[in-house]
Amino acid sequence: MSSFRSDFRQSRDNRLVRLKAFNGDLVPNGHILLRSPPVDHFFLRRAAGIPESASMPRTTPALSTLLPPLICGTATFNDQYNPDPYALPTTSIVHEALSLGVRAFDTSPYYGPAEDLLGAALDTSFVHQNFPRRDYFLLTKVGRISGDEFDYSESWVRHSVQRSLERLHTSYLDVVYCHDVEFVSPEEVLTAVEELRRIRDETGRVKYVGISGYPVTTLCELSEMILRETGEPLDIVMSYANFTLQNTRLASVALPRLEAAGVDVVPNASVLGMGLLRRKGVPIGARGDFHPSPQGLRAAIQAASDWSSAQDIADNRIEKVAIRWALEKWMREGVAVGSKGDPASGIPWIREKIESYGGTKLGVSVMGVSNVEELEETMRVWRSILDGLEDGEKTALDAGRSVDDRTWSLQRQQQVTVLAEGIRKALGEWIDYAWLSPAPGFVNKRSAPAIPAPLPTPAASPDQVPKPALINGIPELRPRVPI
Q: ω before 479 within 30° of 0 (cis)?
């Protein structure tokens, strides 16, 4: 073990002991169980070893002043969530999203053909004629190659950025994350972050830099370490499956520490817990059951789903409740690490600013869909939530909706609250359970940088992209697992 990693772990253990007295108890798996204390950022920064003199200079303008609070995720453009991502109407999804006011797309080279499919959808006359590149945001990632291969080296970071630029048909990337940081060492993460910042400063091809992953304590530790080592906070930290009906550790555990570490924006992704919170259970793609959740948790969710479906309330399916609950709750609870970009409210877009509709930021969410119908339903829910905010009546009227839409939104909010409370009660001991990531015994099989074979080139058709060629009966694409 390197001295850097050993020192990091020792200092981390010492900081957790100090944090225990402030935050609550440490449970056996090392997670902190909060008792909702008042947030003291000075204490948290000092406990994390961040110098009091750290000025935390930010990239200008701050990402939180620009990024839209609703981001369209493309992890679903992959064979883990869908049997055949090439059969999905990906171009129609992207075009309809833009038409409905969505102004940001999240992707990754790890999501199989997702970057190519998104790039093909954006490189069309419809987009070129109606949506200038400066009017939408592209967020992608580096570092994760496959389920058990990671490369955070400077050379791979440069290669991955250049490949993403080509696939997405763009001259710059708005945000680049280090993908699933819990699988590599702290020094590897620091190396990748510094290289991304060098690209940002020297070429302008990357605008903002962040990290993503699953264990919220790891995201906090690395955010603190990066500020401590570089004097500059991360622009953005994305968590997934950690602010859902089942697990709200992003708010209870991570939020105070990420704020104290100067993180500007914290998007909440995978509000269904990677498809866990569905009446039909986890999604089964071309590679079968990928989900890391234990059978006990799945059984508890099925029981909670059955309870919800039996209630005499409209739209009582667990996935409908889970989506609205998480979007609405994080929109409010994630304000401190939210953003002021175009909220896709339905108002004709004129570089819309959220302060015109309530004077504050909104918590940022990432939503993935597999067809246009799911997209339209997501937008209906999102706009209904906006109608229910303070000054939501003005938003509804300006967008061509009515006062009745705001009234319905408030009524639906009450219904969802009742259903959510019942679902969480049914989940019992599984509330805030988090599976291990990485799993015990994980070994990174990446031994040396290598340039992978290119993905198949998408077809010119706006909705159909050819399947990858078979090599000895095996698809050309290597298996990939989205966040």
A: no
Q: How far apart, in whole angstroms, are the C-alpha atoms of residue 261 and residue 41?
A: 8
Question: Maximum Cα–Cα distance for the chain, whole Å?
Answer: 63
Which of 366, 410, 361, 367 is closest to 387 using CA atoms? 410
In one-letter notation, the amino acid at residue 476 is E
pLDDT of residue 184: 97
pLDDT of residue 87: 95
Question: Can you list the residues of the chain whose pLDDT is less than 50?
Answer: 1-2, 5, 9-37, 358, 457-483
Pairing of strands 149-150, 236-240: unpaired
Cβ contacts of 369 within 8 Å, gap of 6 or more: 72, 76, 93, 375, 378
Predicted confidence at residue 359, as pLDDT, reads 54
**Active-site pick, 86, 111, 177, 208:** 111
Question: What's the chain's Rg over C-alpha atoms?
Answer: 22
> In this predicted structure, what is the pLDDT of residue 83?
87
Residue 221: CB atoms within 10 A of its CB come to 23
Residues contacting residue 150 through CB under 8 Å, at least 6 positions apart: 143, 144, 180, 183, 184, 188, 444, 446
Query: What whole-number distance in Å separates Cα of residue 252 and Cα of residue 298?
Result: 23
Tell me if residue 111 is catalytic: yes
- The closest of 297, 296, 292 to 277, measured between CA atoms, is 297
Question: d(Cα 415, Cα 331) in Å, to the nearest integer?
Answer: 18
Closest CA to 207 of 171, 238, 242: 171
Q: Which spans in 334-371 are helix H? A: none
Phi, psi at 171, each rounded to 5°: -95, -10
Main-chain dihedrals φ then ψ at residue 414, nearest 5 degrees: -65, -40
**For residue range 151-177, what is the model confidence (pLDDT) as tens digits?**
999 999 999 999 999 999 999 999 999
Burial 160-196 (b: 16+ CB within 10 A, else e): bbebbbebbbbebbbbbbbbbbbbbbbbbbbbbbbbb
| Alpha helix ranges (H) inside 204-317 | 216-230, 249, 255-260, 295-309
The torsion of the CA quartet 240, 164, 71, 113, rounded to 10 degrees, works out to -70
The separation between CA 185 and the C-alpha centre of its own chain, rounded to angstroms, equals 21
Give me the torsion for CA of 350, 339, 320, 99, rounded to 10°. 20
pLDDT at 12: 46
State the Cα–Cα distance between residues 463 and 82, nearest whole angstrom: 16
> Which value, to the nearest 10 degrees, does the dihedral of the CA atoms of residues 309, 311, 313, 318 take?
-30
SS percent in the chain: helix, strand, coil, step 5: 45, 10, 45
- Answer whether 0.90 is exceeded by the pTM: no
